[in-house]
Amino acid sequence: MNLSVRNTCSSPSFINAWFLTAGIVALVGIFFSRAMISIGMIGIVLLYFINRGWAKPFINKSQNLLWFFLAPVLIIYIIGVLWTEDYSYWLERIQVKIPLLFLPLGFWAVQDTITRKTIDILITVFIALCVATALGSFIYYLLHYKEITESYKHAKTIPTIIEHIRYSLLLTVAFFAAIHAYFNSVVMTTKLQKNLMIGMAIFLFLFLHILSIRSGLLALYSTCFLWLLIQVFQSGNKKLLWLLPGAVAFLVAMYFFVPSLHNKVNYMVRDVNQFITGKSVNNYSDGNRLLSMKIGVEVGLKHPFVGVGSGDVQKEMNAVYKSEYPEIDPWNWLVPHSQFVYIFTALGFMGFLLFIACLLFPFLNKEVFSDVLCLAVLVSSYTSFLSEATLELQQGIVLISLLFSLSYIRLYSKA
Questions:
Q1: What is the pLDDT of residues 101-115, one digit of tens each?
Q2: Per DSSP, what are the bridge partners of residue 115?
Q3: What is the pTM of this model?
Q4: 218 FRET partner, CA 20 to 30 A, in 51, 79, 173, 366?
Q5: Distance in angstroms (rounded) separating the CA atoms of residues 106 and 126
Q6: CB proximity list for 331: less than 8 A, separation 6 or greater
């Protein structure tokens, strides 16, 4: 009986069904329930035990190591407890980052078992969820066009189902996932299905400009730019570079013809100018974020080698706000609004350099560098690090860990 159960649980069909179910739960949870995210990711981690991952040989080569390219971030955060005083905040940071180590274990344990069909179903579900939720926001925008357009002058945005910055990054990944699926999916194969996929890609591309979230647009155009350079380098066709002026012209045209984007840019210029001129940035969204980065760098420079400790960032930032910026209301006190600055503040130059090394490691893999879906996830995550502490939030961890693992496992999945 036990042998029969073991054989059933280790069968490829059972592993694929389990993986598909856990993946769908996690993807749906991104938009509707944090608990579902955790349940889905735990389900994937359990595959390590179901498929007896400990019995699999771990060959020390880049293909296997790449699964865990951000695990050192968790490790240095754990080590940072040695010079931390706020253990409660430190524990919160560790809990958020646990998937960086354990989620890849589940993927690694079944990378030789999961089929491409299973992965492509999950990618299609992800695209459909992004399109459906974006369509809801777009309809709401049309119904409240004047009010929402005007609100963009005051740091507001179109209401979205989850926090708008992470949402825009997800939509960017979904756009490239749809393009990738149009050419490569083993699920969306008929002419009608391919036309539907390209239609969803076009909608996501246009909606990202209407939504006008800088992080999303930066990720979108950065990925396009890098992908274009890769294609030029690989094909030797320099004529493709003529697409760059066209992209710039399109973006300029969108500024003039999309009111939400126009108002967003004008607000950003006014907000940044408030910071540059040394005026108070209290209740100024962008200015306050820039101030948090400035304070984070200053705090980090006081402890340049190992930082203030992975649990003391908030405490040290609050102390500076209280003593040097009394005009800033306490509810506007922020941790550094950049993952790069956050790492430097917490762990100094040593942690910062290790973090950069981790980020560069995936690009040493030719397959990753040449796959637009992997590239989109990495570029979207990395560009978000410029203005967001992405890895300090569950949804940020999902973006980089879950979505990259899904795109990466497809490279080696069975056809």
A1: 999 999 999 998 999
A2: 414
A3: 0.93
A4: 366
A5: 19
A6: none
